UniProtKB/TrEMBL annotation:
Name assigned to this protein: Uncharacterized protein
Keyword hit for Coiled coil: yes
Superkingdom in the source lineage: Eukaryota
Sorted UniProt keywords: Coiled coil
Coiled coil, from the record: 57-91
Protein source organism: Phytophthora fragariae
């Protein structure tokens, strides 16, 4: 009689344990999926940051090149104006003499 009582109890305990194990397994799977999603989001954000930094660096480099070209153009223009002023000054000096 003890074996017949213990057998149903054992079967019930086994079913409950399997049910709890399955529930725990589902919880672990959900947690794993959340971690994967957050890792994926983190990777996308890191890539977006990297792309933004690269874009900004390129933008700054392009702007720096433009500024250097503009500086060279303005220096050339200033030299031309200086030469014109010097020529006018020489003509005025010649007229005055």
């Amino acid at each position: 009689m003890a074996t017949s009582l213990s057998n149903p109890l054992f079967s019930r305990a086994t079913v409950e344990a399997e049910s709890e194990l399955e529930a725990a397994s589902k919880l672990v799977e959900r947690a794993f999926n959340r971690i994967q999603k957050s890792d994926s989001k983190r990777n996308r954000v890191q890539q977006a940051i990297k792309d933004t930094r690269a874009g900004k660096a390129q933008e700054m480099e392009t702007h720096l090149q433009w500024l250097m070209q503009e500086k060279a153009r303005l220096e050339q223009e200033l030299n031309s104006v200086d030469k014109q002023l010097e020529d006018k000054r020489m003509r005025l000096t010649e007229r005055a003499a």
